[in-house]
Design goal:
4 copies of one chain form a homotetramer. By secondary structure, chain A is mainly α. Chain A folds into 2 domains: 54 residues, Homeodomain-like (Arc Repressor Mutant, subunit A); 112 residues, no CATH class. Chain A has 10 helices and no strands. The longest helix of chain A has 23 residues. Chains A and B meet through α1, α7, α8, α9 and α10 of A and α1, α7, α8, α9 and α10 of B. Chain A binds a DNA duplex through α3. Chains A, B, C, D: It comes from Nonomuraea solani. Chains A, B, C, D: Keywords: DNA-binding. Chains A, B, C, D: One of its GO terms (molecular function) is transcription cis-regulatory region binding.
DNA sequence: CATGAATGAGGGTTCATTCAT
DNA sequence: GATGAATGAACCCTCATTCAT
């Protein structure tokens, strides 16, 4: 681990920030906490990121799991569930980043960021499956399905209800397929046997 | 009326606290904010409640809408959706209290409080409908449906996706009925024509 | 000296601020310095004044010596010299407040404040003596005389040139009278025998 | 040309420092400001000058306009006024360096520097004109005249009173001659028709 | 020799909370 | 019992300066 390495230091700050901001939210996290966690002087946060706010923005920049939108259309919902249930979000404290960001949703900026990622990534893709704009209330049904995914993420990690907290992707497969098929008006498959390329 | 002043002051503090905590979250709310909002000296918060934390606990004490669990079983889900969509949560800044509390979920205490209300009120009632403990994965299916309700609440107010934000209970009725029926394995009705006894 | 006395505490803060700001200037003075000097907690600065800047503004609020503009017109210049030379400016570190404020003249706000007091109090009164607006270049001559007063104040305290630093009002009397008479185009008297009501 | 780079870099740092220190004062100027202005790494300030303080000292080293003390004695005061009013002090932000240094007069070192230049250059020369040490109060009268010059500089640039701010040397000529003659006890001329050898 | 990463002290300011009055 | 003055810790951030590379 080389000292005096700009990129390495930046990365360590980002890593610590990601974890703290996810677990404790923006307000409950101090720059000194992040500095201590990463073993880096707090001043460097301002040198490299300018402000606590900008560090937050960069640390929580949206990262949909790669490949989420690629692959067979009928498996899209299954891939989304896997993103919530299976994907390795250790970097974000074990939660889907969107769920973690809710903890900072007291600030309108954060709400805006959540809104953009939910709409651009999830709702948009699901709306296309639901028949696009030509179909009556495709948007609403896409939002309802997105709401379900978000809700599952919250009950799993924030609320930690007993069954969802320990559920694996396979446990949810039949229910997912049934509900998605009902909402989108077209057959959706469950989850493939293996976890695919997911971590 | 010196006797009732104490109660009136307490009530005003609680009211202001409820609104602030819901809108801005625990950390972003200062006791001085609450004092100013309610026109009361900040010291009284400590006299009456002991600490900011205890004021928060009391202000956000769970309040399921009255009558939520009463009435025909097949309309339970419809009543729950109405609790999220229709009920007048002005006191809590316009959001379902559970959704508002997510903003303060940086603290484990708050998570515990959310967990209890979600499980005790929503999951429990839905599990009974899904067949009780004797039925395979009734708990999981109840949690999945609860997750959906929570998710709808979040997308409506926090994320404010376009269609859900403006949806009324009637818009969601058919979808609700279809999904609930599928998940619970028994027919659930949509919403009655009128808003029922909801405020 | 009563504790927990709002006005007394405010006054002590103002006194300490006046001295520090005068001696060291705005930037070199920290709120903690002022707090330590006055034996008051630094937080109270913000409670009572809102910000360091507003404390500065209040501490350096212009105070022309009372009676400066009252009395025989031909003695006005003499009174002004006395204000610079004799008046007890201990509160401001021994200098005329305007001179002290030059130490903070890096900030445009302060320059504006100096400008207003110089123009409103000194230049205006002298311009009237020089013949008012109807006389050719009365304004210029009034400004030139004001410049002289300011310059005397600076050489006395900031630069501390040997003779001016120790000069008393009587030492300057003949020169003052001569120059003022020449500049204003009307006879100005020197200083009265005694120091009058000045401290 | 690696040999001259060092000198060129030093010169650029000095130039930027001169401007910043003059305009904003010592405390409000950061070494990073100077480094940025000159396009030079901030570390070089410490390599070349040792500290911010020593850079300040070097950047504000006294520079009486060349030729100030040469020429006919009866024109000395006129030349001094020209130094304040006409000389191109762009390097110092447009003000006479002594005036600019008042902005940093919170520090005794700076006051000492101002004192030396005022005494050695201005007061000394004027005292000789006033009759030298053998004449009663020649020193005082020399200081009074110096005070006037300093005061004019301040009202022109810091305070920016309307007439002095726009005055040119010619506007001040008659008043200068009259006052100087009165104070020094010997005839002083106004300004020559042209600007003379001034830059 | 020059770059820039690192440092530690201190800046103004706000916080929840306590204690006189 | 109610008011508000006082407190001290902590906040984000900037500073002049040093030390590896």
């Amino acid at each position: 681990m080389p000292k005096r390495d700009r990129e390495a230091t930046r990365a360590r700050l980002l890593e610590a920030a990601r974890l703290r901001f996810a677990r404790e939210g923006y307000d409950a996290t101090s720059v000194r906490d992040i500095a201590k966690d990463s073993g880096v002087d707090a001043t460097l946060i301002f040198r490299y990121f300018g402000s606590k706010k900008r560090l937050f923005d960069e640390a929580t920049a949206a990262h949909a799991p790669p490949g989420l939108l690629d692959g067979p259309a009928e498996e899209l919902v299954a891939r989304m569930v896997r993103a919530v249930v299976l994907h390795d979000w250790t970097e974000y404290g074990g939660e889907h980043p969107l769920v973690a960001m809710l903890r900072s949703s007291a600030h309108e900026d954060t709400r805006q960021r959540i809104r953009e990622e939910v709409c651009d990534t999830y709702v948009t893709a699901l709306r296309d499956l639901a028949g696009g704009e030509k179909t009556e209330d495709a948007e609403l049904r896409a939002e309802l399905l997105s709401a379900w995914l978000v809700g599952i993420g919250i009950l799993r990690s924030v609320v930690a209800t007993p069954e969802l907290a320990k559920a694996e992707a396979g446990d949810l497969a039949p229910h997912v397929a049934a509900v998605a098929t009902a909402l989108l008006g077209r057959p959706m498959s469950g989850l493939p046997k293996d976890g695919g390329s997911e971590g």
